[in-house]
Please model this.
Amino acid sequence: MYLENGKYYLSGGVDPLNLAQNYQLPLYVYDGAIMKRQYDRMIQAFDVPKIKVNYACKALSNINVLSLFKSFGAGLDTVSIQEVELGLKAGFEPGDIIYTPNGVNLEEIGEAVALGVRINIDNTSILEQFGQAYSNIPVCIRINPHIMAGGNSKISVGHIDSKFGISFHQMPLVHRIVKTTGLKIEGLHMHTGSGILDPEVFLSGAEILFNISKEFPDLDYIDFGSGFKVPYKEGDVETNIEELGARISDRFNEFCRNYGKDLTLIFEPGKFLVSEAGFFLAKVNVIKQTTSTVFAGIDSGLNHLIRPMFYDAYHQIINVSNPEGKGRFYTVVGYICETDTFGVNRRIPEIREEDVLCIQNAGAYCFTMSSNYNSRFRPAEVLVYEGKDYLIRKRETMEDLLRNQVVAPIFEKVES
Ligand SMILES: *Cc1c(COP(=O)(O)O)cnc(C)c1O
Model:
């Protein structure tokens, strides 16, 4: 959102207060132009013969967002069979979807095989079972490079005792499985965590994959995962994607020359592509002045956006209704019956009851982690693209809350 003549706008001059009026609040708004900008940055950062960016759709899985990324030329990274199905529904070709589950059984993987998508396996037990059942289906394997990275322990997934990936120390076992089952390994993958700042982390992970790759003669691609850090407030540092791209590209091209084939270089960002494109609009229900604090209580809570409470994530909060008001200090809280604080002692232009606040960086891991806690409805979602706005998910209703609830016969008379 940008400020012009004392008013906030989304790309294409779309007025967020109009959206608030038309769609009601709380509301998730996604700016497609920002998604496009981030996708283009990613593609342009790499100088290799074959590059593919697979959007990690667990960050934001509305099928319209998936279709938008498809229109940019992206592939899709999925972690469940349901995400695979959403991707197909959005129009992706099966070959452009990679399925990277963790801790699922062979049965679910079999469903993905039947749908024709690429399979990425992250443990030796399933690799062996897979090889016995589907020796003619080429697979990718997820390597754990044992790199400690990322913003916090919940999102760092590549370290030594992480549950993700096959340890690179277990390669002899992998080769034994490949040999006895006749499996073809078409790709190698790593994903070390979220919120990584340092290009060195990728480069050292890359070296480990290059090393392992030499022993797999049938590779088509190497997937370096994701975990890029984005800015959450002004002046915040972010992964320098351009520097990373230049350095990885050089090294990758050199590797391919030695390998004797141009492999596809894959990245699979979620947060980098959508975080900054999301804006969560909520109305201020109440201003509550205590002896120590001024609380602004909004018409939402951890049921809609849990990252501040779950990960201690910092999300900038702006007052869309009063951009030029005098700055005061507020603690912005939700309406859930446990502590759900969006921001503590933030300097924000004067907030009045009924004002519209916007929580920034609400594109990644916000709607997809929302719930019905306290039996509240999940909000609507709107996509803004090329100057127009589109409703892409309706606000829930009482019907949605009751949809799968079944009244047991012993309570049937209560209902009537
Ligand atoms: C979550 C995930 C990603 C995306 O991570 P971001 O930090 O959102 O970019 C990529 N690959 C895999 C396998 C994931 O699980």
